[in-house]
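idk why but the lab printer keeps eating my pages so im just putting this in chat instead. protein + iron/sulfur cluster:
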Amino acid sequence: MEYEGVICRPPMELGAFLLPVAVGCTHNQCTFCAFYKDKKFRIIPLEEVEAELARASETGRIPRRIFLGDGNPFVLPTDRLLTILDMIRRHFPEMPPVHLDATVANVAGKSDEELRALRLAGVRKVYIGIECGDASALTKLQKGFTLSRAREQTARLQAADIDWGAHLMLGCSGQGKGHETALQTAAFLNDTHPTDIINVEMFAHRGTELFRQISAGEFMQAGTLESLKEERTLIENIRIGVNYDGFHGWHEFHVWGQLPEKRTAMLQKLDAAIARCRAEMETDHEQVPDKLQRVRIHIGA
Ligand code: SF4
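predcted complex ->
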């Protein structure tokens, strides 16, 4: 299959077999996201999906997981998803767990019966771009959901025995708000129990509304030091068992591990990074690279 547009998936899905079933994002309004700006959402014909599955099964390798791409494929009609899951089962009777990205609205668009049917057919995890626990930041980012809606919908997934993973973005609320946002985000996560967290420092692609807002001085970005501290406060306050993966543009700094087991080691790593960043700020007038120019890793729906 010819892969089209941006292929993005959570870092914990890197070993998964990527099976595109759609192109683009039906929401496509988040102010920071440029992934699908030039793509009109479309569903990939079943024959192409089947051909890709046939190609993969002919290799003789059984994928440990299958990640359905791209954008927000959970928006596909349930019948269509069930047909694709049935195809997967025919090509891989072992039925590897199937994971995919969704928006809060996509989950809301499925009945409880549909969620249970998808679970029964093989869907095990859905990743959602929650970004942060600051309600006003979500409105400004044009995420298209409220925190109470996100609470409701993640609870519905869990009631259907489907896990959910959270995409977060450090610095969502802007300069000076990192500490408060970290506490709000931790409270949301502690209530909603994701199994995985992917946390990426905010970045702005050229051509996005966020880029325009930053360039016009309408949005003040948090600096690197504040983002590191925000992540420290977040990790300190997460009270659930969760697989955590966090990324910064600053020296490609990366902190990861299972919480709570690795909390102490992760906090020590962050403390060392915070001290190093402070030292750099004292000696380097440039202080922080231009975040507007950075090309960064994945964010999801
Ligand atoms: S962040 Fe996710 S939901 Fe928002 S526009 Fe991009 S792909 Fe769509």
